[in-house]
């Protein structure tokens, strides 16, 4: 029992440290840096949240991110059909357009594929 608790503690500690921002990123913003990393992170979070609300499905990851004249464009991977084992889940790639305020103005599903599919 003690070994299990120790392993769980290690995992929790590792997970918590991976969520903690890096020192250099904190210093950049605090020392008058541009804060671009923080703004981009907020844009990504906002895009994921808005798409999840519209689709009613969980977002998996961001596979592309770029600025445009109108705002931002992201490709977001979404779990469309969760399955067991997870490697057989169906995912979709969505192109998401955000305006300069980070509000979702459009999205389109570009592809649908099985998670275990290579080189789709």
Automatic annotation (TrEMBL):
Per the record, the GO terms for biological process are: gas vesicle organization
Q: Which InterPro entries match?
A: Gas-vesicle_GvpO (IPR008634)
- Entries under Pfam families matching the protein: GvpO
- The molecule here is called Gas vesicle protein
Task: Name its species.
Answer: Allosaccharopolyspora coralli
Source organism phylogeny: Bacteria, Bacillati, Actinomycetota, Actinomycetes, Pseudonocardiales
Give positions of region: Disordered. 1-40
Superkingdom classification of source: Bacteria
